[in-house]
Design a protein that fits this description.
This protein is α+β, with helices and mostly antiparallel strands. It has 2 domains: 1-127, Nucleic acid-binding proteins (OB fold (Dihydrolipoamide Acetyltransferase, E2P)); 139-187, no CATH class. The chain is built from 5 helices and 8 strands, in the order βββββαααββαβα. The protein has helices at residues 83-99, 107-118, 129-136, 166-171, 182-186; strands at residues 3-16, 20-27, 31-37, 56-63, 67-74, 155-157, 162-164, 177-178. It is globular, with a radius of gyration of 18 Å. The protein binds zinc ion.
């Protein structure tokens, strides 16, 4: 059985089976690893506090085809205090989880998210985290047009990975969102 230790950012989890949960661990070397946390939903679980969404943790993973979290120890850090920054981080985690295939290595994206979580991000502070994340995932919003009317895009629907303008973005499902879009604002 393979066993390895890695630094991971939790992108959230979903219930798996009766009591267990599947945690989406974003790693620098292996991209997203979906790993089972056995009885992760028990109140007495020692694992889950270390695997809350956006937590940076050292995780011990075992398994061959499926992966299981054997141990987790979170790195001591504060999550952002301002709700806007926290919301943007949650959105970034959601986008990555939805658009990045499992085990697809994206070290630059991983470092961007880590730096943003730790508050040590230095470059690109004038652009929104959302547009940076989209760019790194191959969806460059800067010159994108609305899928319905070709107006400059200001919204992105994660579910179908599609850009929309202000008007059409609002008529799409609630998962669409606006992002800082300097080029289009000037247009
Ligand atoms: Zn439109």
């Amino acid at each position: 059985m393979r066993e390895f230790v890695t630094l991971a950012i939790s992108l959230g989890k979903r219930i798996s089976g009766e009591r267990d949960s599947l945690v989406f661990l974003f790693t620098e070397e292996n991209g997203i690893i979906p790993a089972q946390a056995i009885s992760g939903y028990r109140i007495t679980s020692k694992l889950m506090p270390h695997l809350e969404t956006l937590r940076l943790a050292t995780v011990r993973i075992v398994g061959n085809t499926g992966y299981r979290i054997a141990d987790a120890l979170r790195i001591s850090h504060q999550l952002p205090v301002t709700s806007n920054r926290y919301k943007e981080l949650l959105r970034a985690a959601y986008i990555i989880r939805k658009l990045l295939p499992f085990f697809s290595q994206e070290p630059e994206l991983w470092r961007l998210l880590r730096d943003e979580i730790l508050g040590t991000r230095t470059s690109g502070v004038q652009t929104s985290l959302t547009s940076d994340v989209l760019c790194l995932l191959g969806y460059d919003p800067h010159f994108a047009g609305c899928a319905l009317c070709s107006n400059p895009a200001t919204h992105f629907a994660v579910e179908d990975a599609t850009f929309y303008c202000e008007r059409h973005g609002k008529t799409q499902n609630a998962l669409s969102f606006t992002f800082a879009h300097e080029d289009n604002r000037r247009a």
